[in-house]
Amino acid sequence: MGFFHMDSAWEVHALRISDIKVIGAIGNLKTTPDARMIPKQQKWTERNQMQECTQIVTVLSDFIKRFNPSVLPLSCPTDEDASPRVGNEDLRVQARELVQHMKKNEQVDFNNDWKLINVFFNAQNQCHPCSSSQQEDHMTSSMQELTRILDYLHQEVPKAFVILVDTSEAENASLSHQDHGTRGLNEVCECTEEPFRLTTVMQRWYYQNSWEKFLASGRYDTQDTFTAIYQPFLQEVDPSLFLGKQASGHFLSKSSVARALSLWNSMMDPTGKKEELIPAGKGIPIKCPTQECPYLFTYRNSKYLPISPKTTRKTEMKEGSEVRCPDMNPSNVVPTSVHNLRPADIKVIGALGDSLTAGNGAGSSPGNVLDVLTQYRGLSWSVGGNENISTVTTLANILREFNPSLIGFSTGTGNQNSAAAFLNQAVAGARAEDLPSQARRLVNLMKNDTRINFQEDWKIITLFIGGNDLCDSCNNLVHYSPQNFTGNIGKALDILHEEVPRAFVNLVTVLTISSLRELYQAEKVYCPRLILRSLCPCVLKFEDNSTELATLIQLNKQYQEETHRLVDSGKYDTKDDFTVVLQPFLEHVPMPKTSEGLPDSSFFAPDCFHFHSKTHARAARALWNNMLQPVGEKNNEERFENMIDLICPSQNQPYLRTYKNSNYTYPTATATTTAAAVYGSQLQCEDRAPSTSLPTSVHALKPADIQVVAAVGDSLTAGNGIGSKPDDLPDVSTQYRGLSYSAGGDASLESVTTLPNILRKFNRNLTGFAVGVGSADDANAFLNQAVPGAKAEDLIKQVQTLVQKMKTDQRIDFQRDWKVVTLLIGTTDLCDYCTDSNLYSATKFSAHLRNALDFLHREVPRALVNLVDFLNPMILRQVFLGNQDKCPIQQASFLCNCLLMVREGSPELARMKEVIEDYQSSIRHLVESGHYDTREDFTVVLQPFIENTSLAFQPDGSPDVSFFAPDCIHPNQKFHSQLSRALWNNMLQPLGKKMNFLDLAADIALSCPTQEEPFLRTYRNSNYTYSANPTIENWGSDFLCLEQGSSNSGPTSVHQLRPADIKVVAALGDSLTTALGAGATNITSLSTAWRGVSWSIGGDGILETHTTLPNILKKFNPSLHGFSTGTEKETAGLNVAVGGALAQDLPSQARELVDKMKNSLEINLEQDWKLITILIGSNDLCQYCENPEAHSVKNYVQSLQQALDIFYKELPRTFINVVEIMEMVDLRQIQGGKCEVTTESICPCFGRSLDNSLELQEMKDINRHFQSGSSMITYSHQYMEREDFAVVVQPFFQSTVVPLDDKGKPDLSFFSVDCFHFSERGHAEMAIALWNNMLEPVGQKQTYNNFTYSRTKVKCPTSDNPYFYTLRNSGPLPQENNTASRVPYWAVLVAAAASFVATLVLVLVWRTRKCSRKEERPINLVSTVF
Question: Considering only Cβ atoms within 10 Å of each terminal Cβ, which end of the chain, N or C, has fewer?
């Protein structure tokens, strides 16, 4: 490392890391209660408190060991009383314990070893003193306690370097993530007044500053062997962000590692310079001592000098003004129009906003940081009235020059509730969401004040907000979205517009806040950076050029743009005595600079964040000038370092300027009107009230009862291309989630029609909707978790993420709130159907959809799920073909090749139409099953409005592409608006009467709930009865494969074997292959072997009536030989399976089969390709516990090997399926009165074991060893040396579970009367699974069976992959983590070999246990026949 040295330091100011011999710590790091819990109810444990401290010591010692391997870490002492205490008094006990421990520890040379001691403490309680007068008392007592501890260590411990570590910033950071700001703390701490974040920040800064000065004074530097330094904070960061090798140890918590790494890095910084900001999300290098500064930093060797901010700037003189306007008279007659309003006509002044209007720190003297808590309302730029214009420049004082009788202005200091505040109702720390309540208070004050003639007096009200929103925006982009920001401003303006006569409202746009970074980053300018970054983290904590900073700047711009749009809408110019005028002077205001080009801190209060009186004066002048500048010509870029001269009303225009007296036309008026007509909607519903009491039944749910809206799906719901311009094809990748029909919440219903915007007309507190653009992972997506390109199989992940978000988001009461979740999926699956007809079959589509709905049904209370029928891709084909000159071919072929690029009238297109109908049918069957109507608070409703979509057409007959994004595939906003309207109307239509078509060209009006039918419609409140499932006549399958031909010439390689090349089929096994009981209707017919319907070898009837492997193969080669028919042995064909057979019987069956083939006149042994299927082992498993040696895995594998050896030696041109044995344990679930035989008697080794018993677990392990054993021998090299021979494991049984019915119980229709053997339906499912496995590559074969009924589950070979898959033609096996290296063939065998050894051990276990068991009952004939 280069830092080792031989001699130990002789003084603490020359102490190196390698000199440290002992590291210890005191203090409890887990003493902050959750803000949502009352401290008295907290449960504290000693282990919880000690562990964090000890883990930090462990991580630090790991680092120090790289400099000094012999360093000794000490566990943190504990206090016997585990409950948290007020302050830090318990540290005294710990300090004594630590000292005693070091003295007694034989590994520590107490007098000579250098010790690093960390003292962890919290500079503030979470429930900090509620009044500022208590704060200094609290901090003084806390410092006194810690000083006594340091005094004790100083007196008792030689050779010690003590770090006083303040953990309060880290704990406040965690608090800030619990909620927005400090909301709710007043209830927790029982404060009479809700605390302002600035109070907490100031307290922490004051405490830190006091400690720095105290320790730097030299109190603990009187000896050369002791010092103490202050570590100002432990910033919570993700430990994964640190670059370099970290401390090891799986037991370490992320919190401990992060804090230790942060502390280590801070130890490498000089004292007084430990405030370096760690950029959020950036990799953080682990710091090391340098050659220039190899020592631990102390105040002395850092040459630390406390900075005195008082010396950095002179006390500012008050900045007055002079008003010399020629005409300062009021109107001759009090005007009735706001557009004829002169300054002297103003009688009342008020203001709304945050701490910049409250005047925090405006009159603070330089360096008096704590005084920033004082609200100097009399100096406030927009409403302050201290003294007069000659000494204090404010808008109120300017107006008093025109009308000395003006009232409403604030004077002196105090909060909004003080009498001197009057109509300055700004609240420090306020955000846009707080404006409506401020407006309400302001209106009430004006109405109730006898000095104000509310109806007659002209009023000027200035509204300025947004800084705090931007400062916190990165924590929740949805909450602080531009739409919410202007929406909240709009709510406040609505109150004023509706209730306040004769008012001129100044709406001042938010300033460009990123310029604050210049002040923060200027090293030559003194600023308390801890305060700055605590007050405005989202502006300051990210790196220059970072994505996060770019997002903030864009958001800032959107705030300004949306504010313009709000005013430009003209909605506040509907009355002649009221207007809202945008005053933009702060929009592009740059950071004021000194003559040296540095940020001029004299414009700021001592915290470098709030405005000083100088800035208030300049802002007042700029606002006044803006008020006199015509709308459309207002200055939006004032330079505050330049003196701003006051302008006067002119003779031609003596009025405060409005849009009308400026001859201004709102630029968005025409566009807004046009867009609103197309995209917006009007809701004429009179009754928008919620239920009298919150309903408990989903069938009594009114629209206003909905609190949460969410959606899952594909790119249609994600919003791809909704807002794209017609010629901007690349922009289709943009996800306009805020415009999405089912989950978007941009703007309002008047301009953007979406389901959430409709619901917000009923409930303004609706949450969950998305705004703006971005991916599902972005915060503004919120509960729109749709993912572009998603297919049905992806739904389960989406709903899992959705539920997790709903459970953890504090805006949602998961158990209580009613939710509407909209699900639309399927188009993407259909667009890829031709690439893999099995993977995208209607059956699998339905299964994936059911998995997602099952999860919602199981996890989500109080929910109505809209299941929207998918957009029929034939519509897209119609649009594309009708506009080939406008629609991009390459894009279409990429997105939906299976439908858009096939020939009209082709079999492929006909097949696709059938599959679409199957998809739609599967959706209906899923809902009509009633499976999701088993709970009173949950239902799934099919909304079929999109099932039949009618396009709009141009005069030339071509489809109107104005409803589509530039790719002609994704719907644009015009289309989404129609989707939203149709969905809403569907939700109000009763089941059985829902519209199942959408006419894009129609003028769709929004329906309203009626007094008779006020609820969202469900099956119950529609008096609807689900139709019964159609009767299934047989278990056949439909054959949908187009390519059925054999190889052009007979293949010589098994790796190029097509289905049509198979000439002979055969099978070995036990009663599952003989099909014992497959057609039995009672116990007497159970012993019949229904070989003709056997899954692997039966040939009764045709595929359309009996699904078996031979019947599938007969579709490819009608001349197939060897299959069984009927129930007689004489017609068994090449089915040599025997009921009750064990693995040891396989060699004899193999010999019999070879002889049959050799003696058959129908088989050309040398030329015919043969397909043999082997399934054996169930009987071995069921009897394993009776004789583990006889039925061991070893014997099983040897018997299988002997059979394969016979075939390999004697049969040319052979493809062998070895089917893995099924998971037997699930058969235990099957029981009940309909079962003629119990599992216990049929399969005792599984049936008689108790649940969770060791015996049952061992049987499950043996079961898996049987499975892996078959793989081990099958893929042995000894069967790979011939080109015309292959053995392939088909694993569909590996993870198969017992199929369940709609009630969640085993579906007995798959089983014979003994509830153990399979019925014909079960055999059909096995046949499909085996066939599909044969067409899947090795390593990608499905290891479970899909029991969902469908006649279209049979997979087809493709032109790209026409062969049965073998190990060789499957290509490289799938790699984990996308590694490039190939897995050799033998890799398949490795895992199986390990289980072979384990089996030998289990045999011994069973042998010893069997000796101690009671004698088992004899096994009857039925139980042995499998």
Answer: N
pLDDT tens string 353-365: 999 999 999 999 9
Q: What is the mean pLDDT of residues 76-98?
A: 69
Q: Is 355 a catalytic residue?
A: yes
Active-site residue among 434, 469, 573, 714? 469
State the Cα–Cα distance between residues 1152 and 1147, nearest whole angstrom. 9
Q: Residue 302: is its pLDDT beyond 90?
A: no
d(C-alpha 1388, C-alpha 1275), whole Å: 7
Task: Note if 1121 is an active site residue.
Answer: no
Residues 6+ apart with CB under 8 A from 1030: none
- List phi, psi (to 5°) of 68: -140, 95
Residue 845 CA to its chain's centroid (Å): 24
* Residues 694 and 379: beta-carbon distance below 8 Å: no
Q: What's phi and psi for 167, nearest 5 deg?
A: -95, 5
Which listed residue (61, 176, 302, 355) is catalytic? 355
871's tokens: 């957009």
Would you call 757 helix, strand, or coil by DSSP? helix
Residue 1175 has pLDDT above 90, yes or no: yes
In terms of phi and psi (left: phi > 0; alpha: psi -120 to 50; beta: otherwise), the region of 789 is left
Task: Assess whether 616 carries a catalytic annotation.
Answer: no
Separation between Cα atoms, residue 319 and residue 316, nearest integer Å: 8
Residue 1220 is classified by DSSP as: P
Give CA angle at 202 (201, 206), nearest 5°: 120
The whole-angstrom separation of Cα 864 and Cα 937 is 8
Q: Which residues 6+ apart lie within 8 Å of 1186 measured at CB?
A: 1244, 1245, 1410, 1416
End-to-end Cα spacing for the chain = 70
Residue 1407 has pLDDT above 50, yes or no: no
pLDDT at 590: 92
* CA–CA gap between residue 731 and residue 178 (Å, rounded): 36
Edge to edge, what strands does the sheet with 706-713 contain? 706-713, 818-824, 863-868, 938-943
* Set 610, 612, 925, 1121: catalytic member: 610
DSSP string, 843-862: HHHHHHHHHHHHHHHHH-SS
Based on C-alpha coordinates, what's the Rg of the chain? Answer: 40
Report the distance separating Cα 1391 and Cα 1394, nearest Å: 6
Query: Side chain identity at 1401, as an amino acid letter?
Result: V
Q: Is 309 exposed, middle or buried (0-12, 13-18, 19+ CB in 10 A)?
A: middle
CB 517 within 8 A of CB 539: yes
pLDDT, one tens digit per residue, over 610-647 is 999 999 999 999 999 999 999 989 998 888 988 899 99
Contact predicate 237/244, CB 8 Å: no
**d(Cα 613, Cα 394) in Å, to the nearest integer?**
10
